[in-house]
User: Fold this.
Amino acid sequence: MEKQDIVIVGSGCAGLFAALQFPADKRITMITKEIIEHSDSFLAQGGICVLKTPEDYQSFFDDTLKAGHYENRKESVDIMIRSSWDTIRELVSYGVDFARAEDGTLLYTREGAHSKPRILYHEDETGKEITSRLLSQVRSAHPNVQIIENTAMVDLICQDNTCRGVVIRRADGSYDIIPADYTVLACGGIGGLYKHSTNYPQLTGDGLAVCMEHGVALENINYVQIHPTTLYTKKPGRSFLISESVRGEGALLYNAKGERFANELMPRDLLTEAIRAQMAADGTDFVWEDLRPIGEEEIKNHFPNIYARCLEEGYDVTRECIPVTPAQHYFMGGIHVDEESKTTMEHLYAIGETACNGVHGKNRLASNSLLESLVFAKRAALHIIEHYTPQDGPLPAVDFSAYEPAETLAARRKEAILSEIRRLNEHEYQ
Assistant:
C-alpha cells in the first residue's frame, strides 16, 4: 500500500477524534478489525464527565483518585479535568446532542463513586451519540481520511525502535503493509479474552500483544475492571450492560430475600465484591436490580435502550426487578504512554482503552472513559503535528508467512497476554 502520513489502528471515539485534529494535507488511513460500528465506543451508555464548575475541581479530582485507589497519575488526571469543557464544546460543534432542560441548559446525572452530578448524557446511548457524530464528521468533511473495515493489524513495522507503519490482514486473508510516518494505536480493550464481557469479542488486545513482542513498555495490564451490573442470561455472547446511571438515578439492589445488601453507589470494584459475596451467600448466579424507584416516565425517557432490551428478554423494568451479575467491562492498564500519548517506541502513539496514561489508576471512575479517550487522543494528534518528522528510506523486510496460520498466532498472543496478567496478579498478592 502507498505510504501514508498517519495510520490509525481502530475506529472508536479516540481514533476518530484524533483523525479530526490533523490538517487536511495529511493522508490518514484508519483500519478497523470489523465494521466500524462494532466499536465499544458505540456501546457506552452512561455519559461523559465534565468539570461542572470551577468549584467542582477538587471534588472531581478526589473522586477520580479515590475510585482509582490513589494509583492514578495526578498530572494526567489534572489534564483530563481541565480539558473537559474544551472537549465538550468541540463535541457540541460536531452536533453531539446532550440532554438539556426546556430552557436549553445542560442536564447532569450522577453515577457510582461520584460525590455530585457532573455527567452529561444522551439518553442511555451517550457513546453511540458521540461516536456516530465523530464518524459522520470524518466521512463528510475530511476526505483526507480513508477508513478500511474488516482489516486487522497483525504487526508493527519496526526499525531501530522506530515505528514505520503496520502489517495488516485483510478480510480475504491476504496480507499487506501500510507504511506511515506515524502510527496511532486506538485498538480498544481486552474483553474478547474473557468468557463474560460487555465488550465486542474481536477486542482481543492485539495492540498489547504486538507491543509485548517488540519490547514496547506496558503498564498495569492486570488492572481489569469488572462491571457490577450486567443483565443475567444463560445465552452465550456479549453481556448487556445495565448502566451505572440507573443506580445514580435511584435504582436499588436486592438479595434473594428482597433485602438491600450494599450501597449502590460504591466504586465499581467494591460493589462487584459485595455482589459476588451476596451471590455466594444466596447460592445464586445473580442479584436483583430494581429500577422502579426511578419512575416509569424517567426510565422510558432517560433509559429507552435499557428499557427496550430488557423487554426483549422478558422483563418490564417499570413493573419488576431484573437479574444482574458482574462481567468484565473495562481495561485500566495498557500500553504505557506519557502525557502526550507517546509510547516508548519512536513515532508510535497509543490512545483510548488500549493506552495507559494513568488517569484511571486501579479502578476507573464511572464515565471518565469517554472524556479520557478524547482528551488524550487530541493531545496525541497535536503532538504529532507539532513534531512532525517524515520518515524516508527503505523499509525492513516483512515475512508474511510468520503470521500464519492466523488462528495459531491469535491463540499464542491471547495466552501471552493472559499469562502476563496472571503473573502480575500473583506477584501483587504475594
